[in-house]
Specification:
By secondary structure, this protein is α/β, with parallel strands linked by helices. The protein has 21 helices and 18 strands. The chain has three domains: 2-17 and 94-223, no CATH class; 265-277 and 332-731, 4-Layer Sandwich (Purple Acid Phosphatase, chain A, domain 2), CATH 3.60.21; 284-323, no CATH class. The two termini are 26 Å apart.
Amino acid sequence: MLVISSVALTWALLFVGSASSKPVEAVSSTTSASSGDQASWTAPSAFPSGVFKHWRVKPGNYSQEPRPAVTKFGSGGYFSQSIDQPYPLQTGPPASNAVYPDKKEQAPHKNYAKEIEANITSLIANNNTQQIACQRCISGLRLGQKLAKAAPHHVPGVLIDLCTRYNFTSTKSGLSQAEVCKREYSGATLGSSLTQLLSYADLNGENPSDGLYLCANVVGTSSGCKNPAPIDLNADGFLDKWFGGKSKRSAIRKRSESVRNKKHMRLLHFSDIHVDPRFFVGGEAQCTSGQCCRSDSFNSTVAHAPPSPPGSYLPAANISEKAVYWGNYKCDAPWPLAVSAMQSVKHLNKGEDVDMSVYTGDMVTHDSDWHLSNDLVTYTQQAIFDTMKHFLGNGPVFSAIGNHDTAPADQSSPNSLPDKGPRDQFSYDWDNLKRLFEAEGWFSHEEAKQVSRHYGGYSISPRKGLRVITLNSDFWYKGNRYNFIQTSNPDHGGILRYLTDELEAAEQRRERVWIVGHVLTGWDGSNGLSDPTNLFYQIVDHYAPRTIAHIFFGHTHEDQFNVFYANNGTQRTSVNAKAVSFMAPSITPGSNVNSAVRIYTVDPETYEVHDYDQFYTQVNDFPGLPESQHGPIWTHLYSAREAYGNFSQSAVSGAVANGTVKLTDQGYWPAQAPLNATFWSALTDEMEKRSELVTQFRHFTGRDSPKSPGCDSGCIAANICYMRSGNAILGQQCPTGAHYASVQS
Ligand SMILES: *[C@@H]1O[C@H](CO)[C@@H](O)[C@H](O)[C@H]1NC(C)=O
Ligand SMILES: *[C@@H]1O[C@H](CO)[C@@H](O)[C@H](O)[C@H]1NC(C)=O
Ligand SMILES: *[C@@H]1O[C@H](CO)[C@@H](O)[C@H](O)[C@H]1NC(C)=O
Ligand SMILES: *[C@@H]1O[C@H](CO)[C@@H](O)[C@H](O)[C@H]1NC(C)=O
Ligand SMILES: *[C@@H]1O[C@H](CO)[C@@H](O)[C@H](O)[C@H]1NC(C)=O
Ligand SMILES: *[C@@H]1O[C@H](CO)[C@@H](O)[C@H](O)[C@H]1NC(C)=O
Ligand SMILES: *[C@@H]1O[C@H](CO)[C@@H](O)[C@H](O)[C@H]1NC(C)=O
Ligand SMILES: *[C@@H]1O[C@H](CO)[C@@H](O)[C@H](O)[C@H]1NC(C)=O
Ligand SMILES: *[C@@H]1O[C@H](CO)[C@@H](O)[C@H](O)[C@H]1NC(C)=O
Ligand SMILES: *[C@@H]1O[C@H](CO)[C@@H](O)[C@H](O)[C@H]1NC(C)=O
């Protein structure tokens, strides 16, 4: 239910009819609550002053996105205009962003690149040889490797030529194939990074694992290659060695009665802001050209090309939906929306600062590879962390790096690469995070040091008995091409070793741990890689529930959860439930979801979640906001306990989980019991009996988005299966179908 705060309402009434195009200043507003936690907050229309000190384009005009002037660390000056100007858009990152592998061999002659290109071309053309498609793909990689080792700087040129000849890329942006190929495969965009892969991949032997992965995932399914079978982690005592022969200690410690009445903590969980600093008000918001709400966006159904000259607008008849000041469903968050979400938190939390926050990654906008750069990443991190600092109290904000928070996107390379250049290629990023976590006052200097060593990850104890271990999840993400080298090692980045060592130490210290990351390990298995997510699953089984209290992820933009079970998920029943991961909904509305933030109530001794409140704003209302003289209305969507705590159908003799959890007389989850893995697993059992709960869940997944598709009985069964799949192998065994795994379109 919408509860507009009375002060804001008064302002709104005062201004109705005064059709000014300027946001009104200082609409004061307070939290109001109808009952319990059903808070709602109406943002003022004015951009909150004081978040940014300097501006390129000042807020105060609904026809333009405000552009903060952000200082570039170390240089003393601002980031260059090309980072955030809506037009003209940059055609590629600076050449200095390119990082090549060292030259390993002498090229036999000056025209080696031409020879290799000719041989690859004939390999593609002469497909009447005996070699099957996948083997031809691997032969192609071997040719590329020769060049990458002998003349690394020549690889991008060959890639651009081949791309242009064989139409590797889409031309939906309105650019020619040749132009897209040039932008996409130049050294500074993807060219040098692909050169590294060619140089470092192990392509020896008949069916080289690295080669199969590279062909199946980077070249694509057309290569005819399939991913190799998952590694058997029990072979050669791998898992025994992994855990140092230590056995599981599964008993969970009893909490003392004295804390029963202690005030619960409030923990903010937010994710996937994806701020778009080049958002172009008036541009095409329902585009077919890639990133929408940009000066170069267009929809091919109603327009044949982007507006010309850059910065002009298509005629109204050639626009399907106009980009508006507060944002649109197919676009990343403009600054006013991103800031409004963070501004809303204190108001939604009854006027009090949250005790701490978890941000599960992705700050940088989704974009064509050539519009990304190291500077765009550091600009976004600086501006967003400063905004968090402004609105979220003393923090700390425990932030995980997302797959979009690097340039090129999705990429993180292991510290074990042979050459120094590539080994250090992301240091600019990890070092910037280290600096910011300390500068915002969240981490001590000593604590921050870990961030550089662990790809943006760290292990920190912010309160007695609690430890937060944050990981760079790119190392299990399918989109990270560096995962396709050294594939015989399920942990080539070393992050799961780090996690295990930190968990072991935490267990010794009797701490409870929250694991924080970006990319989820499970659900339908479309994001994670089998081997690292399988190993992660075994680690969770080893240390939960005694030491691992919860796992926090983001990435999908959707409100989801995953239950992890004992014994490799062989019996996924509630008695075997050991841990739960929460996927937070996104702040970006892309694609077709409503912006949302979540606040948990957490037990201050066990650090288990007792409940959470999900808040959202209806993006569908945004086009009308300038006239209504207020900003987005942030509203309570549901509380987890209220929405899901009724176990009337699966309860046997008033209890669930084989009688281990005694319900209330009304069949409700006991008021004192946490919403732990047993709860979420029992919920999936209840869902099997009451399919309307899955319908409800899907409605929450997209946060009441009018664009969310329905879910038939096949889809309902699939969703229950996804909830019970904490790793990629399990997720891939679930049924699939259109719109089953996601409400986005
Ligand atoms: C608002 O921005 C538009 C587009 O840049 C500009 O044409 C207009 O003059 C601005 N209006 C005001 C009041 O600044
Ligand atoms: C390219 O093909 C020619 C003709 O088959 C062959 O002689 C040459 O060795 C090949 N070059 C490389 C680098 O494999
Ligand atoms: C060989 O290439 C042609 C033309 O590209 C294609 O039609 C055919 O299916 C290919 N054959 C094999 C065995 O890949
Ligand atoms: C690439 O696209 C162009 C233009 O659409 C077309 O003429 C050409 O045949 C395509 N080439 C290949 C190899 O598919
Ligand atoms: C867990 O089960 C999956 C099949 O669901 C199997 O591929 C994997 O090897 C098993 N892992 C372990 C450690 O037993
Ligand atoms: C393009 O515009 C048409 C007509 O307005 C619309 O039906 C379609 O959904 C739009 N395409 C996308 C991808 O949004
Ligand atoms: C706009 O739409 C009209 C009518 O469909 C069409 O004739 C014209 O070419 C379009 N203009 C652009 C720039 O796409
Ligand atoms: C969850 O809480 C219930 C009730 O306190 C308890 O019986 C169960 O063992 C807990 N489950 C886990 C995985 O900690
Ligand atoms: C719990 O759910 C059942 C449907 O299975 C419903 O009949 C009952 O009224 C619900 N209980 C409460 C207290 O809402
Ligand atoms: C729980 O109950 C089910 C069904 O009655 C039974 O098959 C299973 O063995 C029980 N599990 C445990 C751990 O008691």
